[in-house]
């Protein structure tokens, strides 16, 4: 892959006329504000992120506010965004910044990469956008632009291909207007050089785009080699209701939905009454089956079979710190997995727990 001429000037000229300049994180571009946006935007669309970002910044306006906040409060602001390890790592990174860096971001890319949850491209984006450092990024949008522009014949996730694309990204990175160029490359991939239906006629790079020259620009970037179909797992979720409260379980700090409050679960083939009475120390008075639904993760499908159990609670369950009774409003204020929040928000009996 041989670099071409006049790349960055064309991208910047396009950005001056058509780039996005009014997103919330583009105002007052401090390293903290840019960092939060970059983490939220991983695996998530801009339109989805905007309201989350605004609420997050209102509650945690600086790194000190984020560092001292309880993890549950941070996760509650993340509920619905998915990939919750992002939020847990962000909370840990904030505490490290306060403890080790007096609340300031390190001055070098290597220093920023030492923070939990921040890799090479994210570190470069933070420093480039907030401090105008000449550091190249290679996020999904930039990979797509470069892979299509050069008609890269291999999947960008392959080690050799990715290394070559890093070289291109660094070659094209200008010495000035670095932050604007970084934003311009993100915008180009997000608004014109999209996965499907790219708007090639509006692209500033159309004249010498190798992908467009093939007549099938959407053939690039090449797809990741296919894996087997996603496996399907099944779980039963128990909506245990006692008086005006629902029982929730704190999940382990790592793994799926790590650190979130969730509904107790039992295996697909377990008897839910027996499991509830023996494991959760309640007396079941009535059971109502709720509608099953599927929640999809990146690597498997989870079929959720929820049931409502009206119970007489035992005080013994409170001795186990991972279980706790909450009112409906208290529960909805916690960090909850998206499917659990859906159950609690939409189920008629839960709506009456006010």
Task: Write the SSE topology.
Elements: H1 7-18, H2 31-41, H3 46-59, H4 63-68, H5 71-78, H6 85-101, H7 109-113, H8 120-131, H9 140-149, H10 159-172, H11 178-192, H12 210-213, E1 232-242, E2 245-250, E3 261-262, E4 265-267, H13 272-279, E5 283-289, E6 293-296, E7 301-312, E8 323-326, H14 328-332, H15 338-346, H16 348-351
Parallel strand pairs: 1-7
Antiparallel strand pairs: 1-2, 1-4, 2-3, 2-8, 5-7, 6-7
Tell me, briefly, the overall form: elongated
**What can be said about the biggest beta sheet?**
8 strands, mixed
- At CATH level 2, the architecture of the largest domain is Orthogonal Bundle
In CATH terms, what is the fold-level topology of the largest domain? Endonuclease III, domain 1
What is the N-to-C succession of helices and strands? Answer: HHHHHHHHHHHHEEEEHEEEEHHH
Q: Stretches where pLDDT falls below 50 for ≥5 residues?
A: none
Distance between the termini: 62 Å
CATH class group of the largest domain: Mainly Alpha
Q: Helix/strand/pairing class, anyone?
A: alpha+beta
Radius of gyration: 24 Å
Q: Give the name of the CATH superfamily of the largest domain.
A: Hypothetical protein, domain 2
Helix content: 40-55%
- Number of domain modules: 2
Q: Give average pLDDT, whole number.
A: 93
Task: Kindly state the number of beta strands.
Answer: 8
Strand content: 5-15%
Number of helices: 16
InterPro entries: A/G_AdeGlyc_MutY, DNA_glycosylase, Endonuclease3_FeS-loop_motif, Endouclease-III_FeS-bd_BS, HhH-GPD_domain, HhH_base_excis_C, MIG/MutY, MutY_C
Function: Adenine glycosylase active on G-A mispairs. MutY also corrects error-prone DNA synthesis past GO lesions which are due to the oxidatively damaged form of guanine: 7,8-dihydro-8-oxoguanine (8-oxo-dGTP).
Family: Belongs to the Nth/MutY family.
Keywords: 4Fe-4S, DNA damage, DNA repair, Glycosidase, Hydrolase, Iron, Iron-sulfur, Metal-binding
